Each structure stands twice: as structure tokens, then as C-alpha cells.
């Protein structure tokens, strides 16, 4: 509409000089009457107006075609062009953001793959280090086992054999006789085989022969304490300490119940409060209120233990006091004994 008004304005501007020239002529000078003069005067104006309208329409068509072809037409075209440009810019920004997002995703994926590889590499390295540490420890333990002397669980001493019973004496004599009767180059049968042969022979012995064997067994039993004491006197304090350590280990492992050896003159440990109480009950005999005629040792032990648990602290106090005094005396005597033997060993 603005272009149409501008075109009309230009057409009117071109027609004004003609209208002015026509208006300058006096009406009297015209040869026509006033009505005719008016029609004659109005006809050129209408003609000019029509011509101006046609020129404006042509200019508008030209301008519209030019604006459609160049894209630089009126305000609407400019607004449309601006919007198209803005839309294109936004599309480019969107595409650019999408590409950036894709690059960021690819970068994060690559970073994650790198971290996973580093993590796997570190885990593998730790496993290798642990395996190496285990292997080194096993190697060190084996070397230590070879170079470190294990605590003994078998006695290094060779005490005299204990007394034999009648069957053992007969079997020893039987094997000795068989060995003495072997021909030159003949081998003696195994002990188990000889034992199977000796059993029927022992059972067929007369009462007199068995009594004689029993007498020999009694003689060995009576003589053994002196033999054992004589052997113990040959032991040094170091021998006894080592033997006692072996016996303690064997008791802990359930392999033996042998008590520790004592050096000659070594003070004995005092009895605990419970054993002082048990000794007192046993001294009262089977008719005591605790034992009540019980003869079985295991049952007696159970009765004494229950009686001890039934005592209150005031009733137990005399036994604890006796043990404390004996313990103090033992500690002093043991310290003097150890000092004396330490000086002897030096």
C-alpha cells in the first residue's frame, strides 16, 4: 500500500503543471458555454487521473516484481527476510550445538575407555604384585624352615628302659634263644612273626615257670627307681630344661602326659588353693561329707570340684592365704637355686 501511494503521488506531481496551465486560461476566452467548458475542463483532469492511476498500477506491478525478484522490497519482505535469516542462524547454531554435543560425547567415551584401560592395567599390576609377594613369602618361609630349627617334640635323652612284665621277659628270652640257634647266614624272623609263635608257648608254661617270670619282673620293678635316679644324676641343667620343654610341647599336643623332670634339690611348686582343699578332703577318708563313701577316683574328683564351687569367698580365703605364703617362699628358693646352678654352669 505504501508503494501504491508513492506511485500515485508521483503521477499527480507530473500532472500538476498541466492542470495549472489549464486553470490559468480564463473561462470567457473559451468558445463554449460554462457547462461545456466544465466538461471540457474536467475531461483532461479525468484523463490525467486515469493515466496517473494506470501509471501507478504499472509502477506498483514493477515494484512488486522487482521486490519479489531481489528480496529487498518493502517492510514485510524485509521482516520475512530477517526472520528467514534468523531461522537459518538458529538452524546453524543448532547444528553447531549438535556437532559439539557429539564431539563431547565421543570425547567422554574415549576418556572412559582410557580410564577403563588404566584401571584394568592397574588391577593387573596389583595382582602381579600380590602374586609376587605371595611367591616371595612362600620362598622366604621355605628358606626359614630350612634354616630355622623347629622345636623338638621328641626327647633327645635316652633314659634306661622301664621294668618288664612277665610276658615281656618271656618274649625277650624267646627271641634271644631263636637268635642264638640261627645257622650261619640264616636271617632272624621279624619280631611280629616271632611274637605270634611265642604266644602259644607262653600260654603253655607251667605255674612254676610263670611264677619265676613274675619274680624276675618284680626284681626289675624294685631295682628301676635306683637305676633311674642314677641316670638322672648324669643330666646337666641344660639337658633337663630341654627335656622339660619337649615334654611340655608333647602335653599340649596330647602326645604324652609325662611330668617335667626336676633337678636335684630344685624346690617344688606350691599347690594351688583348690589342690590344698582336695588334699584336705582326701585326708578325711571316704567317710567325709564330700566323698560319702565313693571309691571311684573320677567320681571323687567330681564331688570335690563341686564342693569347692559351693564354698563362698570367706571359706576359700584360708586356702588362698596358705597358697600365697607358699608361693612367696617358693619364688625365693627358686631364685636362689637358679643363681646357684647358673654359677655352676659357668
From TrEMBL:
<dbReference type="InterPro" id="IPR050342">
    <property type="entry name" value="HMGB"/>
</dbReference>
<dbReference type="Pfam" id="PF00505">
    <property type="entry name" value="HMG_box"/>
</dbReference>
<dbReference type="GO" id="GO:0003677">
    <property type="term" value="F:DNA binding"/>
</dbReference>
<dbReference type="InterPro" id="IPR009071">
    <property type="entry name" value="HMG_box_dom"/>
</dbReference>
<feature type="compositionally biased region" description="Basic and acidic residues">
    <location>
        <begin position="318"/>
        <end position="339"/>
    </location>
</feature>
<dbReference type="InterPro" id="IPR036910">
    <property type="entry name" value="HMG_box_dom_sf"/>
</dbReference>
<feature type="region of interest" description="Disordered">
    <location>
        <begin position="318"/>
        <end position="346"/>
    </location>
</feature>
<keyword id="KW-0539">Nucleus</keyword>
<protein>
    <recommendedName>
        <fullName>HMG box domain-containing protein</fullName>
    </recommendedName>
</protein>
<keyword id="KW-0238">DNA-binding</keyword>
<dbReference type="GO" id="GO:0005634">
    <property type="term" value="C:nucleus"/>
</dbReference>
<feature type="region of interest" description="Disordered">
    <location>
        <begin position="57"/>
        <end position="166"/>
    </location>
</feature>
<feature type="DNA-binding region" description="HMG box">
    <location>
        <begin position="267"/>
        <end position="338"/>
    </location>
</feature>
<feature type="domain" description="HMG box">
    <location>
        <begin position="267"/>
        <end position="338"/>
    </location>
</feature>
<feature type="compositionally biased region" description="Basic and acidic residues">
    <location>
        <begin position="75"/>
        <end position="144"/>
    </location>
</feature>
Amino acid at each position: 500500500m505504501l508503494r501504491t501511494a508513492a506511485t500515485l503521488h508521483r503521477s499527480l506531481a507530473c500532472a500538476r503543471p498541466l492542470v495549472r496551465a489549464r486553470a490559468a486560461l480564463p473561462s470567457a476566452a473559451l468558445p463554449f458555454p460554462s457547462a461545456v467548458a466544465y466538461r471540457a475542463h474536467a475531461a483532461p483532469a479525468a484523463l490525467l487521473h486515469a493515466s496517473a492511476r494506470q501509471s501507478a498500477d504499472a509502477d506498483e506491478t514493477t515494484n512488486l516484481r522487482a521486490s519479489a525478484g531481489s528480496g529487498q522490497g518493502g517492510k514485510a519482505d524485509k521482516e520475512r527476510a530477517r526472520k528467514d535469516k534468523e531461522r537459518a542462524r538458529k538452524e546453524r547454531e543448532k547444528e553447531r550445538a549438535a556437532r559439539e554435543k557429539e564431539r563431547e560425547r565421543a570425547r567422554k567415551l574415549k576418556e572412559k575407555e582410557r580410564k577403563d584401560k588404566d584401571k584394568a592395567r592397574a588391577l593387573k599390576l596389583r595382582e602381579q604384585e600380590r602374586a609376587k609377594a605371595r611367591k616371595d613369602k612362600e620362598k622366604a618361609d621355605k628358606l626359614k624352615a630350612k634354616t630355622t630349627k623347629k622345636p623338638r617334640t621328641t626327647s633327645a635323652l635316652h633314659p634306661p628302659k622301664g621294668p618288664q612284665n612277665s610276658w615281656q621277659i618271656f618274649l625277650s628270652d624267646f627271641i634271644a634263644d631263636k637268635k642264638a640257634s640261627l645257622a650261619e647266614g640264616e636271617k632272624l624272623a621279624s619280631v611280629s612273626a616271632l611274637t605270634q609263635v611265642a604266644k602259644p608257648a607262653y600260654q603253655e608254661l607251667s605255674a612254676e615257670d610263670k611264677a619265676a617270670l613274675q619274680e624276675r619282673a618284680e626284681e626289675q620293678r624294685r631295682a628301676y627307681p635306683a637305676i633311674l635316679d642314677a641316670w638322672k644324676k648324669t643330666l646337666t641343667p641344660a639337658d633337663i630344661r630341654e627335656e622339660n620343654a619337649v615334654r611340655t610341647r608333647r602335653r599340649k599336643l596330647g602326645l604324652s602326659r609325662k611330668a617335667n623332670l626336676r633337678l636335684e634339690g630344685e624346690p617344688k611348686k606350691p599347690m594351688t588353693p583348690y589342690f590344698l582343699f582336695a588334699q584336705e578332703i582326701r585326708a578325711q577318708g571316704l567317710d567325709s561329707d564330700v566323698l560319702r563313701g565313693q571309691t571311684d577316683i573320677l567320681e571323687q574328683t567330681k564331688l570335690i570340684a563341686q564342693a569347692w564351687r559351693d564354698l563362698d569367698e570367706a571359706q576359700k580365703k584360708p586356702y588362698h592365704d596358705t597358697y600365697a605364703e607358699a608361693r612367696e617362699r617358693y619364688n625365693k628358693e627358686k631364685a636362689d637355686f637358679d643363681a646357684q646352678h647358673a654359677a655352676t654352669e659357668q
